[in-house]
Amino acid sequence: MSLVIDGLQYANWSEKIFRQMRAGGVDAVHVTITYHETFRETVLNIEQWNRWFETYPDLIFQGRTAADVARAKETGRTAIFFGSQNPSCIEDDIGLVEVLHTLGLRFMQLTYNNQSLLATGCYEDHDTGLTRMGREVVAEMNRVGMVVDMSHSGERSTLEAIEHSSRPIAITHANPASWHPALRNKSEAVLRALAESGGMLGFSIYPHHLAGGSSCTLDSFCEMVARTADLMGIGAIGIGTDLCQDQPDSVVEWMRVGRWTKSIDYGEGSASAPGFPPMPDWFATNEDFPQIAEGLLRIGLSDADVRAVMGENWLRFFETSFGRQSSSVWSI
Amino acid sequence: MSLVIDGLQYANWSEKIFRQMRAGGVDAVHVTITYHETFRETVLNIEQWNRWFETYPDLIFQGRTAADVARAKETGRTAIFFGSQNPSCIEDDIGLVEVLHTLGLRFMQLTYNNQSLLATGCYEDHDTGLTRMGREVVAEMNRVGMVVDMSHSGERSTLEAIEHSSRPIAITHANPASWHPALRNKSEAVLRALAESGGMLGFSIYPHHLAGGSSCTLDSFCEMVARTADLMGIGAIGIGTDLCQDQPDSVVEWMRVGRWTKSIDYGEGSASAPGFPPMPDWFATNEDFPQIAEGLLRIGLSDADVRAVMGENWLRFFETSFGRQSSSVWSI
To answer: What is the ipTM of this complex?
Structure first.
């Protein structure tokens, strides 16, 4: 089977899910390890991952470089790459970018829906773009090799991040707004700028990002992928399922509300549907990745294009994104 | 010039000192980065080191494996290996052992003079040996590849650490008590057990550990080294200067007092001499390492033995100490 890389998951991890990754042929996953957690709380989450790596070394290991994807393939395991969906983990301290990179963080969103110290989230009324600290942190992320992820950011902030970043950025889990006009989905202007700068889009299968929601068909999803390939080029797109398997609804509340309000914010949900929406029947677990590949073939993508979308594009992006950017003769 | 490795320093680091390391031909140093600091405070110290690594890449870089010593030699730089003189940095959380190892910590003392959560310091009235957590943390340090350092521990705790640890431990900076009966110096029983278990002793040049204090002659120091080689074997000894160059006296007060008392504890000093004692005239900066090698040759050690003491023994110890101890077929 060809390479499979998922650009984002946040499951309630367990041996069952790790085994499903193997059954689905998943070679590498960018996993969210933290949302609104402080640095110390994020480290506690890393400690939990260290326990999983120690307990299930035959199923998973921590990915640090693109070469770890090949190692995963060769040894029949899944490489786990860490990411954060909010910059809370660096607090107000730019020095924590390098520290967290050393601990394996390879992606960080500049915002999660709200204004952060760095940029504006997609749910704010006014998007003022990158902040002063935001510009500094993007430069530091560029230096150490941590990918700027703008999945939950506002339009202006995203365009400014693309412009300001000296290395290509990613939108790891979102879809085109032209297909489904959710606040979290992205405009053509953003998708074009992303592609022109060498960045990557990961297609989300989170129902709120799908035309038709949980009822979205595989064909509709795959047609959207093909249309986006026409817009962005086949090399700029991959999968970013946003799979939140087995999470209790208390977790989606934490994701949305964190500690920033005493009220309930329903985010993409609503008072009548506050929890995680049911996944479409063609993608419920990691075992379903082959169905996506089959769906893409069925609507007419070539073998080579399907391989690119299912993993090869992310791998190429990993190869140029995770290493240190050094202007010095002294490589680390 | 042959290999030079220093088993412990805690200087007030500066470009001047990094250049003195180069002038003295120092290939690698175990540097103390934290005493009584919490985990978060220790990470702030690591951030400061990251800035130095970024600012002076032509002089220093972070050492992580024994191979970095060869890289230092080849590129004319000094490899900096992190260590802690107290387990405050892991707080009450065994998961922080692996996290700090990932951040580069390669040595950790189980105690600094006082009782810790792990063992008993050399200034306590009663030494009850390794605690329950102490045994667990030693096993975890063994697993990830972090050296147990008992320089500031009590006799019983030190013997128990040697016995309990599945990998050789170190006393990075101390001398035989038979030469100078300081509380911090070590008994023959400890030194024999250390050598028999494959451990290492680093000879301290901190004046309170020297016969004659600041007036100790180089010949006296070198004769002590030779006598200790007779006791422990030439392969079990190295240098661990404990050089605290350019530190203000406020730092020695922090080292001794931390936050554990509201009174002043003078440690190895006294009310009349509370500060750092003056270094002996033959070792004041890193530029003076060649004098130690010359002194050892002068009192009759062979070329090969001097090379062993000045660096080759530490290198061999590094080679077997810093990597992960895995019972699994899955190496990291």
So the answer is: 0.92
A45: domain CATH number is 3.20.20.140
**Among A168, A283, A239, A323, which residue's Cα sits nearest to residue A5?**
A239
Are A231 and A188 in contact by the 8 Å Cβ rule? The answer is yes
Asked if the Cβ–Cβ distance from B39 to A44 is below 8 Å, we say no
Q: How many helices (H) and strands (E) does chain B have?
A: 12, 9
Distances (CA, A) of A283 to A79, A206, A244, B54, B83: 21, 10, 11, 45, 48
What is the total count of domains within chain B? Answer: 1
Burial class of residue A206 (count of CB atoms within 10 Å of its CB; 0-12, 13-18, 19+): buried
Contact assessment for residue B224 and residue B176, using Cβ atoms and an 8 Å cutoff: yes
Distance from CA of A199 to the nearest CA of B (A): 27
A149 sits in which H/E element:
strand A147-149
**CB-based contacts of B212: which residues, under 8 Å, 6+ apart?**
B220
Q: Which residue has the tokens 């990557």?
A: A200
Query: Is B165:B142 a contact under the CB 8 Å cutoff?
Result: yes
Closest Cα in chain B, distance from residue A96 (Å): 7
pLDDT at A331 over 90: no
Rounded Cα distance between A240 and A247, Å, is: 17
Number of helices (H), then strands (E), in chain A: 12, 9
**Burial group, residue A66, by CB count within 10 angstroms (0-12, 13-18, 19+):** buried
Residues A47-100 pLDDT 10s: 999 999 999 999 999 999 999 999 999 999 999 999 999 999 999 999 999 999
Question: What pLDDT, in 10s, does the model give residues A170-224?
Answer: 999 999 999 999 999 999 999 999 999 999 999 999 999 999 999 999 999 999 9
pLDDT at B267: 87
Across the A:B interface, residue pairs with CB atoms under 8 Å apart total 55
Strands A28-34 and A78-84: parallel
Tell me which residue of B309, B241, B170 sits closest to B11, measured CA to CA.
B241
CB atoms closer than 10 angstroms to residue A106: 21
How far apart, in whole angstroms, are the C-alpha atoms of residue B257 and residue B267?
9
Query: At B161, is the secondary structure helix, strand, or coil?
Result: helix
Q: What is the pTM of this model?
A: 0.95
Residue B155, SS3? helix
- Residue B83's DSSP bridge partners are B32, B107
Q: Which domain holds residue A198?
A: 5-321
Cβ contact A103–B98 (<8 Å): no
Q: What is the pLDDT of residue A327?
A: 60
A18 close contact with B: CB closer than 8 A: no
